[in-house]
Amino acid sequence: MTIKHPPGPAGNFYQQLQELRADFLAYLMNAADEHGDLVRLNPGPGTYLYLVNHPDLVRQILVTHASQYHKSAMTQKMVGRFLGNGLIVNEDESHKKQRKLAQPAFHKQRVDAYAQSMVELTQQQMQTWQPNTPFDFEASMNALTMKIVARTLFGTGVVGGTQKVGEIMEVFADAISGQFRALPLPQWLPIPRHLRQRAAVAQMDELIDEMVTDWRTKGQDNGDLMSMLLLARDEESGEGMTRQQLRDELVSIYFAGHETVAKLLSWVIFLLTQQSKIAEQVQAELHQVLDGRMPTTADLPQLTKLDQVVKETLRLYPSAWVFDRSPVVDVELAGYHIPVGATIYVSPYVSHRDKRFFDRPDEFMPERFAAGWEQKLPKYAYYPFGGGPRICIGQSFAEMEAKLILATILSQTSFELATTDPILPEPGATLRPQNGLPVKIK
């Protein structure tokens, strides 16, 4: 017999909303610690909002019963306004078909071909850093990953125009993050924030349209992701993507492809400034493997310590720190009835700090990812890239990019924080350092 409601935090809607706004991450962590594997939150009268916090429930939602869940209406509305109906919000057969069309663009051979550009652009970015002069490492990584995704997605011709694209993406990220900071206002209100968002969407649409038109005029494979998407054809119908589909996928890849990696790189460097011994171990490994040359994809399997650092950073500070699902039919979770249309939070940030599965969960311990340890974890105790049919399509791209950038930087440079203020995570479209990451070169 199912029980009507799972346990949850005490207090009325206004009290919980105040706690949530004060510290969303702490609110979710406390809810999981105090109330267990399935928690009913109280976001407002007549609403149903839950948090799952057990690998079996995460797997049930993401994998075994994935067809019973969609992205929530709020996510589809908020994200879709900027990214369209790309893979991030697409659903059901349309998602399956679109993912199949896009998948070849992320095959290993295609992704490996971008490695040299990633290293070259990283070296160029490093030339902007001055010894003993503090700079914002997060901002620098935003600029770098923007250039990398521009070159790999659109080819060399667009790299010089990434500043404008970067400004547009910042508007997108800030707007999407806004749902975690305040109640959204109706979009028809002509307030400055909404006007900026509309202008940014129009500018991005115009930019993508120009690029697609130019490509179709020339009609050749330039070795970039856009070429792969434009050349993709459905096996059964022989049809390619519509112009709107192309726009939505290109913008989605652009947004996710730079935002998530830039934050991962920032958190890696932050954690290494806190653990000098681990930083020295990473650099010793790089010196041994690279012997003074620049890294290639062939070196990555030998960089085991670097791999552990990246995985542990994704455990502590997953870029995709939370995502949601909404059941399209009434479902049962952990013996509780969850009604159609409810919103369910699935949070890697919370799951990755579960004391049942991670010893000393709040500590930075890359050695926990030594060979074979990850396989002993329950499936979906650790899932920084999601899982099931919606697992991040760019996972291999992101991992390779992050490791090549870090290998290039850390083989030549050490950092220290240039602030005494605490570096705190700010939950938004991704998990970013609240006030950037001020550093200086040692």
Would you mind describing this structure in some detail?
This protein is of the alpha+beta class. 50% of the residues lie in helices and 9% in strands. It contains 17 helices and 12 strands. A 5-stranded mixed beta sheet has the order 1-2-8-5-3, with helices on both faces. A 3-stranded antiparallel beta sheet has the order 4-12-9.
Can you tag this structure with a few keywords?
alpha+beta, five-stranded mixed beta sheet, Cytochrome p450, three-stranded antiparallel beta sheet
Task: Summarize the SSE layout with pairings.
Elements: H1 13-22, H2 24-35, E1 38-41, E2 49-52, H3 55-64, E3 69-70, H4 73-83, H5 92-102, H6 108-112, H7 115-126, E4 135-136, H8 137-154, H9 162-177, H10 192-218, H11 225-231, H12 243-274, H13 276-290, H14 304-316, E5 323-327, E6 331-333, E7 336-338, E8 343-346, H15 348-351, H16 373-376, H17 395-410, E9 415-417, E10 425-427, E11 431-433, E12 438-441
Parallel strand pairs: 2-8
Antiparallel strand pairs: 1-2, 3-5, 4-12, 5-8, 6-7, 9-12, 10-11
Helix pairs in contact: 1-2, 7-8, 7-17, 8-9, 8-12, 9-10, 10-12, 12-14, 12-17, 13-14
How many alpha or pi helices?
17
Uncertain residue segments: none
Structural class: alpha+beta
Order of helices and strands: HHEEHEHHHHEHHHHHHHEEEEHHHEEEE
CATH class: Mainly Alpha
Helix content: 40-55%
CATH architecture: Orthogonal Bundle
Distance between the termini: 62 Å
Largest sheet: 5 strands, mixed
CATH superfamily: Cytochrome P450
Order of strands, main sheet, comes to 1-2-8-5-3
Number of strands: 12
